[in-house]
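Q: Two folds, back to back.
A: First:
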Amino acid sequence: EIIEKVQRPPPLCRPAVSADQAPLECIHLMKECWSEQPEKRPTIDQVFDQFKSINKGRKTNIIDSMLRMLEQYSSNLEDLIRERTEELEIEKQKTDKLLTQMLPPSVAEALKMGTPVEPEYFEEVTLYFSDIVGFTTISAMSEPIEVVDLLNDLYTLFDAIIGSHDVYKVETIGDAYMVASGLPKRNGNRHAGEIANMSLDILSSVGTFKMRHMPEVPVRIRIGLHSG
């Protein structure tokens, strides 16, 4: 019931303490601590100093112990908040990285900001498509995890290659690999050359690629380009 009142003012829920129940300095300090304006609330250190001033050297073991406990609790709470904030930042970076892997950076930023993403028209673009020759047969002769390892190894190799070209990986579906150049960043008339050079590099790398579970079986890929 008290929590409900504190959470949903007005009226402000505050204890009534008469002057004969505590020193006036303590009552004044208590009122400062529950101020609605955070900047007007004293810090734990200031509370500690004021209590020492109020007590004027008298033995106050209980109060000192209480204040030390509050001070320690405040310090522990700050450390916990800092730790949780760091964990949250790490998770946010993971989410941002995953989002930029799935979508163009400009689109990902717009989605994070909550703004609508307007479709764009690109006049000059070259697309690359490739798949694995005989993938259905290879899959039939392999365990599911072996197929996953094959695709992961092959497309990790492709991802490393496209990093040195002005291209954007659109997606991979099964054994299909799709790349574009000229979008989402326009590059004039260089898109065809970028995709062509990338294709030759991929072909060259596939020539020495070996499957883990069937190293004696050569891997061949079928590549198609469309420029316009």
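A: Second:
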Amino acid sequence: LPQRLASLATTAQEETWQSRQQLQAQRQEIAQLQEELSRARQDGGRWAWALQRAQREALEREATRGAEQARQQELIRDMKERLLELLREKDALWQKTEGIDTPMPSPVPRDPGLCARCHKDFRLLSRRYNCRLCQGKVCHTCSVDMGKHGRCCLICYQQRQLQAT
């Protein structure tokens, strides 16, 4: 029996020692987990602060963007008003100039060998054109192609354009 008690005591001591070792290991693990929890809480706090800062900056950017958009819309409105003013001025000036007579084309020179506008000699390479409106003889430089209507001198063309508008 004493041997058995000694054996039981030894077994109990070993189990106690193992339990203490397990308890020690569990305490160390708990300490590590508490440290990790503390770091996680700190990281969570930093992330929460960074998120709040990002949200605040986004709101500020949105407010700035809204103010800039409002300024641009105001500028567009001002530019449209100015455009309308300029159009009214143009119309008023146009009405004033409506009654002014436009100058008549210069008379056709008698010399058929000269351009009626610039008085350049017609040569072999300098072609002469008849103005379809004033019947003057003009060179290529002083005439405008009016498509199927033929060519006319610059002065007649400009007068015709003014009458068309």
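Q: And?
A: DSSP finds two helices and four strands in the chain.
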